[in-house]
Amino acid sequence: MRDLPLPLALTARLLPVAVLACAGWTLSSGSQDASPAGEKSAQNTASGPVSNSGSAPSASAAVKTYEKAPSPCTGITSKTVKSLVPGAKTAGKEIASTDESVRRTCSWNALKGYDYRWLDVSYEIQQTDDKAESTYRARTTEKSGGGAVPGLGDAAYSVVNLTTEDKQQTREGVVYVRVSNALVVVTYNGSDFESKKAPSTDEINKGAIKAAKEAVAVLEDAR
């Protein structure tokens, strides 16, 4: 995780970093490259059956403001990366996608001292506004316990959760934003490997929302 070798005395303490990195990458790439079955079901339901009257679909169902996902690593400013993920390379690392026109994700992670931070920003393009809305509803329903973020996109939701494994705490915040037929998903988490405590809920939540606002601004500029 560093350019210079770490003292051997830290090796045991830093082992959780590799575990977190693998888990974070799997969560980002796996869940983003294949929508959960529940989401597909929700999207199909949103499309709805053809009316017996033979009437044409509503105009809103055919709307597609965004044709492709923007470059995710340009979604966050260097200043924000330095603030949220101290020690990370500001350029970020784009995670491979099966279809970059539909889904793109960038990741930043770093260990500075004993503090670890991970940030993911994803853009997902749905076929219509209606499908984006149904996917948004499915995601936010699954991640219960959060709340709305006013004034961000067409709809935005933020949730923070704490997990503990082998007495090591990790706190993770996720922000979902719908903008027309696009979804922006920001994941931000952190741990302190010296105290084994996690950053505060306020720190993680505010950091995730700040990143989401910047990522949405880049998306809206791409219209």
Describe the structure.
By secondary structure, this protein is of the alpha+beta class. The protein has one domain (10-37, 63-221). It has 5 helices and 7 strands. Strands 1-2-3-7-6-5-4 form a 7-stranded antiparallel β-sheet, with helices on both faces. Residues 1-61 have low confidence and may be disordered.
Order of helices and strands: HHHEEEHEEEEH
Morphology call: globular
Largest sheet: 7 strands, antiparallel
How many beta strands in the DSSP annotation? 7
Overall domain count: 1
Could you give the distance between the termini? 37 Å
Helix content: 25-40%
- Our count of helices gives 5
Indicate the structural class. Answer: alpha+beta
Strand content: 25-35%
Low-pLDDT segments: 1-61
SSE blueprint and pairings:
Layout (H helix, E strand, L loop, with lengths): L7 H26 L3 H11 L30 H7 L8 E3 L7 E10 L2 E11 L3 H14 L4 E2 L6 E11 L2 E12 L2 E11 L8 H21 L2
Antiparallel strand pairs: 1-2, 2-3, 3-7, 4-5, 5-6, 6-7
Helix pairs in contact: 2-4
Sum this structure up briefly.
This protein has 223 residues and is an alpha+beta fold. Helix content is 35%, strand content 27%. It has helices at 8-33, 37-47, 78-84, 129-142, 201-221, and strands at 93-95, 103-112, 115-125, 147-148, 155-165, 168-179, 182-192.
What brief labels describe this structure?
alpha+beta; 5 helices; globular; 27% strand; 7 strands; disordered N terminus; 223 residues
